[in-house]
Amino acid sequence: MPVYFDIHTHSHKARQNVVQVRNLFPNQLDLIEQNPDVWYSVGWHPWHIDANDSDEMFAFLEKAIQNKKVIALGETGLDRSIDESFGRQTNIFIRHLSLAHNAGLPVIVHAVKAYPDIIHIYKKTKARIPLIIHGFRGNHQSAAQLLDHGFYLSFGATLLENNTTLAEVFQNTPEEKIFLETDDSAADIRQLYERAAALRNVRTEQWMETIAHNFDKCFGK
């Protein structure tokens, strides 16, 4: 039976017929459940790095990825809209990529006004792992540049809004590079699948199969 995949959510409420990848912070390992429909990503968000010690947080991350329920690092990334030093954000992001590369895990990426920086760092580090830009809401040019480097684009609740440009970007993104997510919104992942199917003019069940295939390929599950 096809299921819905919510690739990035902050919700800790299980939903019937939905496979979730729940976001955790490095010190929240005690929240991990042994639910077959729930997986986890663990990372150090750029909004919170100013208040934490780097070595301590990466010790948590190294412990976290030993848990078989943790299937991705993140969210982590770069955000030019906050006061935190961009240099420090960059160093933390690079450490995530290195850890993910060594562990063979995908990375869920937070990027605000920083797509070119993300691409540059990915190329420079030569981290040969899948990167998923979560909550993508960029334009055609940004999407093309990210896709050219093999990134996945994950679309969230913004896809439900009357945003013509984003709808067109979604319609033109190769289906094998797409994920859907609820993030911290109140949106139902089923609504997103229905919207995605309508935009691509296919049945919702067909879109469920597409995302399931992408999940298996990206995460090896």
Secondary-structure element order, N to C: EEEHEHEHEHEHEHH
Give the second-level CATH assignment, the architecture: Alpha-Beta Barrel
Largest sheet: 8 strands, parallel
Shape: globular
CATH topology: TIM Barrel
CATH class: Alpha Beta
Stretches where pLDDT falls below 50 for ≥5 residues? none
CATH superfamily: Metal-dependent hydrolases
User: Any idea how many domains?
Assistant: 1
Compact summary:
The chain is built from seven helices and eight strands; from the N terminus they run E-E-E-H-E-H-E-H-E-H-E-H-E-H-H.
Helix and strand layout, with pairings?
Elements: E1 4-9, E2 18-24, E3 38-42, H1 54-64, E4 70-79, H2 86-103, E5 107-112, H3 115-125, E6 131-133, H4 140-148, E7 152-155, H5 164-172, E8 178-180, H6 189-200, H7 204-219
Parallel strand pairs: 1-2, 2-3, 3-4, 4-5, 5-6, 6-7, 7-8
